[in-house]
Amino acid sequence: MKMGVLGRATGLALGAATAVASIALAVAPAGSAAARSVASTSKTAVSRTASAAPRVMKEGMSGSDVLALQHRLWGLHYWPGVKIDGRFTHDTTEAVWAFQAINGLTEDGQVGPVTAAALAHPRAYKAQYPHGPATRVEVNINKNAQVLVLYKNNSPYLISHVSSGGGYTYCSKGSCGHVAITPTGTYTLHSFIPGPVTVPLGLMYNPVFFIGTAYAIHGDTSVPVYPASHGCIRIPNNLSKTFHTMFTVSYSHGTQVDIYNRSGVQHS
Question: I need a labelling partner for 181 at 20 to 30 A (CA). Which of 35, 107, 172, 213 fits?
Fold first, then answer.
């Protein structure tokens, strides 16, 4: 199932109750009271035999439990990939990273009992600019967060893992001593360039610029769980193909982006 901008309603087809039941059953010890309880919650939950061993879901796996996980992440506004098809891709891993960061969990990209329990009772991200424009982008570049939240009508529409400036020094055009820092502040998403764009420091995929043509939110083939960029905000490469269509890109009335570095304020 492809998940476009207009496909969110379809993406919620399983319903939160079914998805949570499926995930919880997948990681509950077989034959346990928890497994029996979850099984009775939804007749459409993933079925398991009494002898089946629980499994921790991680990248490379596939199955109905992964499908339920992807639906649950999508229902919570995380981006698990272009397709919701029961295959645990790296895009799904990055969605799990974002969920784990917001919920104060170890960001290992895997869904075991602890993460599954959090999916059943998730924490909501606390907006830092609740009185800002109804449509806006907030990016928390704190090393323990590294998340982007797109708001529409003052409600989360999309949550994504990101990787911001890594804080290291680097050389560019024969000049060294530059520090890889993402500037904080309030900016406008003013221009977009499709496809791969070659810059002195490498490639940017589908960049949406917020400071001249130097700093952008852009796709990358590497968006690790820690700050690693030269200063731009990296998002999953596949997400970058449609990200720019979700808001207004314009010099005169582009969507506002607020970039901050804050810890201990993620939860509402």
Answer: 107
